[in-house]
Structures are given as structure tokens and as C-alpha cells.
Amino acid sequence: MLSRSTRFIKPLISTRVSTVVCARNLSSSRISSFRSILPIKNEVPWYLNPEESPSVSSPLKTIQIPDLPENHPQALENIVTFLARDLGIDDLIIFDMRNKIANNEIENEGAYDISDFMVIGTGKSTKHLQKASSELDFFIKHNLHKLPTTEGILKNGALAKFHRRLQRKGKTAPNYSKNAYGAEPNTWVMTDTKSDGIFIHMLTKERRNDLNLEYLWSDKAERSKYAKTNVDNESDDIFRGIRYFHSSAQSKQTVSFDAYNLTFDNYSSEFNKLLRSHLVDPKTTPLKYVKDHLDLMYSAGFTIDSDLLYSYFNTIIQSAEVNSKFMTDTKAFKNRNIIFANILKKYNIQLTKKEILKFTPLLIVSGSQFDHPSFLTIKKIIENPDISHEELLRHSKTINQLLRLSNKISSSIDQKHRDLKREIDLLLLSVYANRTNWIHFNQVIDSAIARNDISILKAALPLITACADLKTTVEFNDNVLPLILESGLEPKLEPFVERLLAKIYNANQS
């Protein structure tokens, strides 16, 4: 006996089966009529039918293999063919460096000594060059049985490490260190095949245009074909300064700057010209041009020596463009010291003891209000003995450090630096007298007495009469003036001795 649920389901099943059978009978006649109306299509998919498949032309098939030099080795042909057909390296050029002797002179002497063939090609991207370099090494090892060396490539692990370091720098690193100056990793890969003197250079299109290796290795008769014209587009690579010098309409030099003459004398000479032009007319030659040229020298591998730095900082101190940015003279001397510290850090300059002494006078002028109209110099006081100190002029805290540093260094160097130390002390006396900083003023005097340098004591006499208070004047009269008189007094200093004694006498009478 069927259960209640079974009796309930059985009629439903029979009803559904009859409905499906009827639907099949009705649809069979309609389907047959539709088949006569619809067009018959090929049921083979397009990707299995070669006649209907879209024609795809590989870019590797369009790459031209360059003409090979006469008497070339078979290895050169194999490598160039592999670069073009298997790796997709485009715009291949082969330079034959053999027998580069004309008129008893060797053309491209540097390349002539190390290679017989230079091959240059262009890759599509840094990823392409990275992969192509790996495949080329594999090809040379297994087909030419040589162990090649490759430079300029960063593998995936090293490249990831490089990017992580850049991210960690963040905002703490200076801007120049974040700029690759056009020399990003894997943009120029060089492979020494170790076979028949063949060198392979694979570059990105942008890097190849910047370096212009064709001009470097071509014959003299063909160099005009590879000579660069003015470049209008701007980028952040190391040739940005070269573009400026070639395209600047403001340059009025009789002898143009040859940016491709990569010698220190050429670039330093142009740097000094820019410094002089800036002092004459800051609008025509702003300080930015000077900075760009110095960055160009540094990125090209030239060492920024102390002479260049001295000229640069000396120009900054005198620059109307720099000093006009500051509302007060106090801000001026504070910021000039910051500028100098940043320059040392930016170009990684290490100064010796003698070089520090050389820079000390500039730092004293930079860290004081020496250029203030009311600043009393020794020369100004001697020319006008009646002048008196009216305004208190401040100086940076680094001046006191320079005093201690100059005393320490001068005691450990030879005799010929006494004149430089004397110049430093004269500046320090003037700065301290205008600030009425008599404690450090007397320290300079004591150091001069210890060195038996009477000229410093004589130079202090006009400053005492013009700037000192009564207490300082009396101390100078008791301790220093006898030494000056004993050594002999110049006629131009006699009025100041009289003024000093008169000042003390009038104070005692009152």
C-alpha cells in the first residue's frame, strides 16, 4: 500500500511527462521549418580555420639585419641575427673598430684598444632589455662557449631592493639624490661577449638619443650624420644643462661652450664665466643657471673641489639675487650659513684643515652683518678718526666656533699660513667690535700676543677708540698699548693713541 506522500507525487510525474512529450512533438515541426530559413554556418571555430583567422604580423619579422663588415667573424653574424630575430632588438648598427688608423692617428682610441666590433641596438623598454640581456648571456654561453660579462643590468631581486631603498628615503633625502638624471636602471646594458672583441650595447630609445654613442664611434667622415641638433623637449637627465647651453638665446659669448668636451677645465671655465655674469647682471644670468651647471658637472663625475666651492660661495655672498630675498640683515647671515652647509652636504665635499682656514674669512663675512652700511671697518675708522659706533650689529653663533677652530688649526700648520690667520683675526676683531662683544675680542688679542703678532694689536687700536666702552678702553691701555708703543707706532695710528688717552683722562676728570 502506497503511503500518502507517494500517492500525491505519482499523478504529478505522469502529468509532467505528458506535457514534455507534447512540447517535443510541437517543437519538432517548427525546428524543421526554421532550419530551411536560417543560413548554414561553418561550425568550425575561427581560430581553427586558417582562412578566417586574422593575419598577425610579428614585429620581429620587420627588424632589418644590418650589413656586416668585410671579413667579419662568424660569431658576429650569429649574435646580430639572434639579437634581431629572437630578441627583437631594433635599429642595429655595427661599428668596425679594426684598422681605425688614418694619417698615423688612431680614431676612437679608447674603443680601439678594447674592442673590434661595437654593436648598438634599441630595446622597447627596461623590462625588454632585462629579458634580452639574460637571453643573450644564455646564447653566448651555450653557442659560443664563452663566459660573457654584463654591466648596467639589475636583476629582479636587486631591482626590487633598489626600489625599496628609494621608498625608505622618503622626504628625508635631498632632492638631487631622488633624481636619476636620465640614468635609470636597465636603460643601458653592455655585454662583453669575450668572443672576437665583440661588445653589445642595448639601450632604450630615450637613453640612446641622449648618449649618442654613434657619434662617438663613427668615422670622422660619418660623424655629421650622427651630430645632434638643438633639442627642444625637456627631461630630468644629465644633459639638461647641455640643452640649455645649446638652445639659450641669451648667450652672448664670443666663444661658445662646447658641452661635448667633457673635460674639467672646459666645464670649470664655463662655471667661472657664469659666476662673473651673475654678479654683473643677475637677471640675465640668474643663480639657477650656475646651480644647474654645477649639478651637471657633479652628475658627469667631476669632483667639486675647494676652488670651485670657494668661487661659488663668494658669489652667493655678493649676490643681489640672494640677499634681496631677506627682509633683514640678520636673516641674511643666518640663511647664508645654511646655504653653505647644504652645499657641502649636497656635493659631498670634505675640507682639509688648510681648506677650512681658506674658507673661514668667507664664513665670517657670511655669518655677520659685514655688508651693513653702518658696519665700521678698520679702514673706514682710519680714514675718518672722528667716526663713532652708533648701531649694534649682530653676528651668528658660528663666528665664535670659527674663532676656536682657526686658533686650533693655525697652531698645527706651517709658517706660510700666518698671513691667512692674520686676515681671519682682523675680520673677527671688526665683527666683535661692532657687536661690542669684548670677551671674544680680547680672546683674539690674547691669541695674537701668544703668536707675537703685533700687527693684530695695532689693528685693534682704532676699533677700541671708536667702539669700546670706558672699562674696555682702560684694560686695553694697561695691557696692550705698552706692547704697541714698544714695537714702534706708525704715524697714522698716533691720533688714535691720543684719542684713547683723552677718553680715559676725561673720564677721570668727570
UniProtKB/TrEMBL annotation:
Pfam families: RsfS. This is ATPase synthesis protein 25. SUPFAM superfamilies: Nucleotidyltransferase. One of its GO terms (cellular component) is mitochondrial inner membrane. Keywords: Membrane, Mitochondrion, Mitochondrion inner membrane, Transit peptide. Mitochondrial mRNA stabilization factor. Belongs to the ATP25 family. Coiled coil: none annotated. GO terms for biological process: mitochondrial gene expression; mRNA stabilization. The keyword Zinc does not apply. It is a peripheral membrane protein. It is found in: Mitochondrion inner membrane.
